[in-house]
Every structure is written in structure tokens, then in C-alpha cells.
Amino acid sequence: MRLLMFIAATLFSADVASSDILVAARTLRSGDIIEASDYAIAEGNVAGAIDAATNIAGLEAKTAIYAGQPIQAGSIGAPTVVARNQPVLLIYSQGGIFIATEARALGRGGAGDSIKVMNLASRSTVLGVVQTDGSVKVK
Which of 68, 76, 111, 116 could anchor a disulfide with 132, C-beta 3.0 to 4.6 Å? Predict the structure, then answer.
């Protein structure tokens, strides 16, 4: 019975095409900025792995990536602009109204990332988008 199941699985299984993916050339710690020498091209078919045609130099490792391990899309991102517990300028701008106050980042994030920040005056927590200058803008 097992032999019959093995033969059926072998005959009817689809061939999975492999493609060129990026693998770590050395162990990358969380927070490391990736350089071109930090990754290499390898053949494989790992779900979620970054295609070899993608340039990831200048991005940041969001998790530890060990040497030889495929680089997953969720493991890298924009470099951190705001660190956790860092004081930031919290900005609200709508129409003719502009409000700016001091806040503390409750998470880390790069430009364009959404993070929670705590308004130091009211102690309320809001969600905002990190700007390239390190401020956080709320809508």
C-alpha cells in the first residue's frame, strides 16, 4: 500500500522549478546594514525568499540571518530611523492646523513604517508614520 502511494505521489507531483535566490554570505545580526558583500546568489525554491535580481544593499536586517540561509522578504527592511524609547517630535497637520509635541517611541521603525508613540504631555498612545527626519506624523 505504501509503495502504491509513493508511486502515485511521484507520478502526479508537479516539478517545482528552482530559481536564483539570495542567501547570506555571513551571519547578519538584527540591525546590521546589508552591503553587497553580505549576500550571494544560490539556486533554490524557498517560499518567500528574495529573488536574485533584487538589490538589497543598504537595507537593514530586521532579524538574525545566518550564513547560507535564504534571505526572506520579512527579514529585511528600511534602515531604522527611530529607535525604541527614543524621544521624537509628534506632528499632526491637517488643513491649516499644525500641532507638534514631544513623544517617546514605543517601537523602532524606518521611514514609512507605522509605530506607536506615547505623547509625553497626555500619556496617550497613538499610531503614527515615521518620517525621514525622525519625526512621527499622525493622521
Answer: 111
